[in-house]
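Handoff note, outgoing to incoming analyst
You'll be picking up this chain. Sequence as last confirmed:
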Amino acid sequence: MSFGSFDRGSSNNATNAEINMVPLIDVMLVLLVIFLITAPLLTHSISVQLPQASAQAVENEKKYLDLAITIEGELYLDNEKVELEDLTATLQPYSLETPQPEIRLRADQETRYELLAQVMSRAKASGLARLGFVTRPDSTTNTTEAP
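Most recent structure output, in case you need it:
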């Protein structure tokens, strides 16, 4: 590889059009060394032989309550009819459980908003904080197409 000189008397005044590869090779070697040092740290794992034990599976407790509201305004808590006036007292023992169950509210689409508001306020008054609405998916929308 030849380099130009500052000597004016030189007969070779052509510009050097070659790319100097030495700095690029130095950078690549530094990156390679860094990669070689850090790669084993990323894949390091400890092999452990776990003991075997015979135990029964833990049964998950029910963590939700189904509260259904019919079009006539009747309330059903886990398929048992409940009066609106008794709803706070009926839900209060569930608020003492740990973790608190979630109320799954399944209301008819024609249910009055006033009744829904009363049910939600009585659920909050009983001490339950988690409430969710159960709906069915819209059959007119196609999930495979982009909007």
